[in-house]
């Protein structure tokens, strides 16, 4: 009996702390909270989340912890990532949250500290909108900028596949892909001159890895903890990037706008010269924090997505042949004077874009996004309290059979079959907080898949092996495989690939 009483007391602590002030319903449904519970003191429902993802049952967090106990609902109350929150599980509710400006950003403390107060995650809503106007459309999503970046991506992708095919032993494709896409992002941000300093490249890679580990850790700033190592890594990255900003600013002022300097432009150069409508430029602090964010986000997601796309394509020969046929047609239509991939050609890869989006839908590299109610909000018959974190649960939306027929099936053609289902495909988010680097990420993935489809095949050592879901979905063996070159024969397409 004593154990039962203690158990009930502990299970109600969070409710007493966070809900004791909440007004009684008294028949007024406008005050009704979503169903659910706030779990244990301090840790809330984190044990359930960790257990579900650690043991390969990521969907069970919603199905077992909430739906089975409280019935099916568009949202549930919980306690995750150190705060009371509302988990939003339906496409319509997620769309409302992502497009309603009353829901501001609310990222975990470790992320906001390590990525910097001047990046998209750390600034006010007004400042974020300014950064998006100044960065996203004119740089990260403009054809002119993406056309500049494709040369860096294309060269590194070709060299990487050529190196992998010559390896005598199987490689961990995910590990190699992360290293390679990291190099891509360094080149996109700083230019290919940095490739000449391998020691600096290694230091940046190590610091970036430490920072990445710290993003997913508890904010314990003591020696031996991941967050402490990440803070030190961030400090070194800030110092290194500050040097690049000063050096590049000085060289750009000296070179002016001559044709040769335009050819060598990269993300850093574009951020230094960009101005808003009032003629204001980004501060050095803005640029440095943005460089860290782009480096972190730009290679992790892309490397995982490329690896999974190759796996799915290799497992589905008919889809692979269709995607390959599209790439062959693009090369066949290329002029004899050009052998390099162009941005205009990437825009012609309509089916490949469906492959990419379908990969992201099925894998769900981001299980949730982080928002916060800036005021009490009524939605779908429930009241969301001001200050509570709101989590659009992307996995639930993407894998719901009501949204997607046979959701566990890899089917890029579903983009056409389900094109009128608003809000059911949100791998990059939605609304004004749509991922600013989405176009750059899709460009990277497209270039790597272009070369794989035309020239290579993969032979996995452990096909159908286990999948780990923490910190992101990935093959347990990191996709141990051999990359082998295809027999090109003597076709006109093959000759153009040489």
Task: Map the helices and strands.
Elements: H1 2-19, H2 46-54, H3 60-70, E1 75-80, E2 83-88, H4 91-99, E3 103-105, H5 109-115, H6 125-140, H7 143-165, E4 171-172, H8 173-190, H9 198-215, H10 226-255, H11 259-263, H12 267-273, H13 284-315, H14 317-332, H15 343-347, H16 350-363, E5 371-373, E6 377-379, E7 382-384, E8 389-392, H17 394-398, H18 414-417, H19 438-455, E9 456-460, E10 467-468, E11 474-475, E12 480-485, H20 492-497
Parallel strand pairs: 2-8
Antiparallel strand pairs: 1-2, 3-5, 4-12, 5-8, 6-7, 9-12, 10-11
Helix pairs in contact: 5-10, 7-8, 7-19, 8-13, 9-10, 10-13, 13-16, 13-19
Subcellular location: Membrane
Organism: Oldenlandia corymbosa var. corymbosa
Family: Belongs to the cytochrome P450 family.
Polypeptide structure, described:
The chain has 498 residues and is α+β, with helices and mostly antiparallel strands. 54% of the residues lie in helices and 9% in strands. It is built from 20 helices and twelve strands. The chain has a five-stranded mixed sheet with strand order 1-2-8-5-3. Strands 4-12-9 form a three-stranded antiparallel sheet. Strand 10 (467-468) and strand 11 form a beta hairpin.
Brief descriptors of the model:
single chain, 498 residues, alpha+beta, 5-stranded mixed β-sheet, 3-stranded antiparallel β-sheet, 20 helices, disordered C terminus
């Amino acid at each position: 009996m004593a154990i039962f009483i203690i158990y009930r007391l502990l299970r109600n602590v969070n409710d007493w702390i966070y809900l004791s002030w909440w007004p009684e319903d008294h028949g007024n449904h406008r005050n009704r909270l979503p169903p659910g519970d706030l779990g244990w003191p301090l840790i809330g429902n984190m044990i359930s989340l960790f257990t579900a993802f650690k043991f390969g049952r990521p969907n069970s967090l919603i199905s077992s912890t909430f739906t089975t106990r409280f019935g099916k609902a568009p949202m549930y109350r919980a306690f995750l990532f150190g705060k009371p929150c509302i988990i939003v599980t339906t496409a319509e509710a997620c769309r409302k949250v992502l497009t309603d400006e009353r829901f501001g950003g609310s990222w975990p403390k470790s992320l906001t500290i390590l990525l910097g107060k001047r990046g998209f995650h750390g600034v006010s809503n007004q400042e974020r909108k300014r950064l998006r106007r100044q960065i996203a459309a004119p740089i990260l999503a403009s054809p002119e900028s993406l056309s500049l970046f494709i040369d860096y991506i294309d060269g590194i992708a070709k060299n990487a596949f050529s190196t992998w095919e010559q390896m005598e032993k199987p490689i961990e494709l995910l590990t190699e892909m992360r290293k390679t896409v990291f190099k891509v992002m360094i080149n996109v941000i700083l230019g290919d001159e940095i490739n000449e300093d391998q020691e600096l490249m290694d230091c940046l890679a190590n610091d970036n890895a430490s920072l990445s580990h710290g993003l997913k850790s508890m904010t314990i700033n003591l020696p031996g903890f991941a967050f402490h190592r990440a803070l030190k890594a961030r400090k070194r990255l800030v110092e290194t990037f500050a040097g690049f900003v000063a050096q590049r600013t000085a060289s750009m002022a000296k070179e002016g706008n001559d044709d040769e300097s335009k050819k060598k432009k990269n993300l850093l150069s574009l951020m230094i010269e960009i101005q808003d409508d009032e003629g204001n430029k980004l501060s050095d602090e803005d640029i440095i924090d943005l460089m860290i964010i782009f480096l972190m986000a730009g290679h992790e997601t892309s490397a995982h997505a490329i690896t999974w796309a190759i796996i799915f394509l290799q497992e589905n020969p008919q889809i692979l042949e269709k995607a390959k046929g599209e790439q062959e047609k693009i090369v066949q239509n290329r002029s004899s004077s050009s052998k390099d991939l162009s941005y205009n050609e990437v825009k012609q890869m309509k089916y490949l874009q469906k492959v990419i989006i379908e990969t992201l839908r099925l894998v769900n590299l981001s299980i949730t996004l982080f928002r916060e109610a800036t005021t009490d909000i009524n939605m779908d018959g429930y009241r969301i309290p001001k200050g509570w974190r709101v989590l659009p649960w992307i996995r639930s939306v993407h894998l719901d059979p009501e949204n997607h027929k046979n959701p566990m099936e890899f089917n890029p053609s579903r983009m056409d079959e389900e094109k009128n289902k608003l809000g059911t495909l949100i791998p990059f988010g939605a609304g004004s907080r749509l991922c600013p680097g989405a176009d750059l990420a899709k460009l990277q993935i497209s270039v790597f898949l272009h070369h794989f489809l035309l020239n290579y095949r993969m032979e996995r050592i452990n096909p159908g092996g286990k999948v780990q879901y923490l910190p992101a979905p990935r093959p347990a063996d990191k996709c141990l495989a051999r990359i082998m070159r295809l027999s090109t024969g003597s076709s006109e397409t093959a000759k153009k690939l040489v």
